[in-house]
Design goal:
The chain is of the alpha/beta class. It has a single domain, classed as Divalent-metal-dependent TIM barrel enzymes (TIM Barrel, Alpha-Beta Barrel). The chain is about 35% helix and about 15% strand. The protein contains nine helices and ten strands. It has an eight-stranded parallel barrel with strand order 1-2-3-4-5-6-7-10. A two-stranded antiparallel sheet has the order 8-9. The protein is globular and about 50 Å long. The N and C termini lie far apart (about 50 Å).
Length: about 300
């Protein structure tokens, strides 16, 4: 479908409260039992932001959101303290694949993810750029082509946030420059609907030293991508060292990044209005672990 003269202007679904210090903070929350089951779990950890899967992430099955399920979730969010809600797409999707069967299957799944997000009135869908397998430039082009088709097929207010990766194997999106290249390959009319999600563990593993060169990292981000592109943060410490190119999450302050960088993030005015979601290890008691991590981050935010 050709967009012609249509210009898409993205307006976020969430509105920052009038309070000079509203912290949009939460966790990736289980939907075991249905998407609405995530709401009491979010309330149990005091979340004002939440990330969910809208389907089982390691299956190709693409369930639709029924009218009752949609109503229960949307009304539940309205009656909660949640301000920002987003989903993460399936682990199976690879929009950069050179395999036409996998690429097509991924496109169908990705488009279905967007439709479920729109049905649930989620603010954003987070997606990994995928693995090119053959040639990096060709992989970026395939990814951009698939994103274009999906966004044209599913117009709406859900923003697509491409997640920075750790850079392992043939994965795309481990540098600011590469992410800018991917977004720049999209039609101009669609680009305002696409942003970036920064995962601190991925960024560190990719070689961006948040622990010792915090200001330099964000200066580079601003120069290459611009803060208007930054849609949310995944706050995770790293089990692995700087530049390891491995995705291994650790509890906040207990990994190679350390507490100092997270203290800076929680008091950085450039990041103050962004949803921040933890994906740290859950342990034997997920709620208790999440509450402990979120309490620590809230203490950091108070300075």
């Amino acid at each position: 479908m050709v967009l012609g003269a249509l210009v898409y202007v993205h307006v976020p679904r969430f509105t920052i409260h009038d309070s000079p210090f509203t912290v949009l903070l939460g966790a990736h929350t289980s939907t075991n039992g249905g998407v609405s089951s995530s709401l009491p779990r979010a309330a149990a950890i005091g979340a004002t932001a939440m990330q969910i899967f809208t389907k089982t992430p390691n299956q190709w099955r693409e369930p639709a959101i029924g009218a009752e399920e949609r109503q229960a979730f949307v009304e539940g969010v309205r009656g909660s303290k949640l301000v920002a809600t987003n989903a993460h797409d399936s682990y199976l999707i690879n929009l950069a694949s050179p395999d036409p069967v996998l690429w097509t299957r991924s496109l169908i799944s990705f488009t279905s993810e967007l439709r479920r997000c729109e049905a649930l009135q989620l603010n954003a869908l987070v997606s990994h750029p995928g693995n090119f397998m053959d040639d990096r430039a060709s992989g970026i082009a395939r990814n951009a082509a698939a994103i274009t088709l999906a966004l044209e097929a599913v117009p709406g207010d859900t923003r697509l946030l491409m997640e920075m990766t750790a850079g392992s194997g043939t994965s795309i999106g481990s540098t600011f420059e590469e992410m800018a290249l991917l977004i720049g390959a999209l039609p101009a009319a669609l680009q305002p609907r696409v942003g970036v999600c920064v995962d601190t563990a991925h960024l560190f593993a990719a070689g961006y030293d948040l622990a010792n060169a915090y200001d330099d990292v964000w200066l580079r981000f601003g120069d290459v991508l611009g803060f208007e592109r930054l849609g949310m943060l995944h706050l995770n410490d790293s089990k692995v060292p700087l530049g390891s190119h491995r995705d291994r999450h650790e509890l906040i302050g207990e990994g190679a990044i350390g507490a100092g960088a997270f203290r800076r993030i929680m008091t950085d005015p450039r990041l103050a209005g962004l949803p921040k979601v933890i994906e740290t290890p859950k342990g034997d008691d997920p709620d208790a672990s999440d509450r402990r991590m979120l309490a620590l981050l809230r203490r950091f935010a108070r300075g």
